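Most newcomers find our protein records easier to grasp once they have seen one. There is nothing in a record beyond a sequence line and a structure line. Getting from the letters to the tokens is the skill we practise here. An example says more than a description, so a record of this kind follows:
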Amino acid sequence: MKMPKISLPFKIFDGYITKQVFAATLVCIFLFVVVWIAPETLLKVIKRTMAGIYTPWVGIQLLIYEVPKIVGKALPVGLLLGTLFTFDKLSKDSELTVLRGIGLTFWRIVYPIIILSIFISVLCFSLYNTLIPYSEKRINDLKKESYETHFVYTVKAANDQLEKIIVVPRYYNDMISKPLILNFDSSQYKDTSVLSSILQSDYAVYKKGEWVVHNVKKYELTKDGVFKSIKNIPDVKVLSGYRADKAFKIMSYSTKKERELNNAEITEYIKMLKDEHLNDEYRFMLNKYLQRYFHSAICILFAILGCLLGFSKPREQKLVNFVIGIGIVFGYYITLPFFDMCAEKGIISPYITSTIQPIAILIAIFIFKKIKDL
């Protein structure tokens, strides 16, 4: 693939094509956002506002904060359909024929579109790193919903024997509701641990460096696993120091979707998952992290593909190219959950599942370029 030598500033037709593609892309993005938000999100917000769950102002804010997430998905789609529509129109008006007639190659004609798509690609990556995590946090704050979870944290001793298991049913901010703590004793056997006591608590509070459970009912067990005594204790510190902070971070990250985390947070979470040998979640989050980069790169590939599909001969069926474009978009998004599952279960490496779609689109670009003989 030989890229053209271009001298700046842009030629007149560069600006002309760029403006048309940019305008068409904005229209496509707007339509994508409206179609995506209208059926479910808008209806749900209206129903809850009418029921008095949300105030009108809260309902408006929820709709506003939903937009960045949808725009992140819409940017590649808008570029593909925007370039396809623009180049199809240029083909119909014989403008592309004129440009080819004066000796311009395909890559020279789409050069300004590639530059535009690079800027949109950077914008897409920035959305997933900053604005989307912020908007998701604001949505959670407005809904004031506690995180439903069945988080289980295992504490092991220096000899890798089981020391403690903490079960958390739900939490909100630093308040943990009805945690259950299972304490184990490893002194009886060398190769295993036995349950020594159970702590049932009304609630726990996390402060930096410690987990403290309150209103505790402690069940003591004998070495044979029989209940020995039951005690009521005001409060007990169950975790402290590095373990306390690490456990709370893993719990808070595990209850969030990938889009709620910025790059620094998701990198930290992946590292902790690897250290704790939580392999399924580690592979899944690594796949979603890599997808952020390749999803942004898809903007460039979709822009080039849209230009190729827009190039058409006078008697060529125009509708076919639009159907192909929409089919590629549909295939791209519908296969994402499948590759997520393959990565999570270890069927395919996350490094492959995150790159297979961009590679497929790149192959499609070369195929369409050869078919259209450009």
In short: The chain has a mean pLDDT of 85. Strands lie at 147-156, 162-172, 175-177, 180-185, 194-207, 210-221, 227-240.
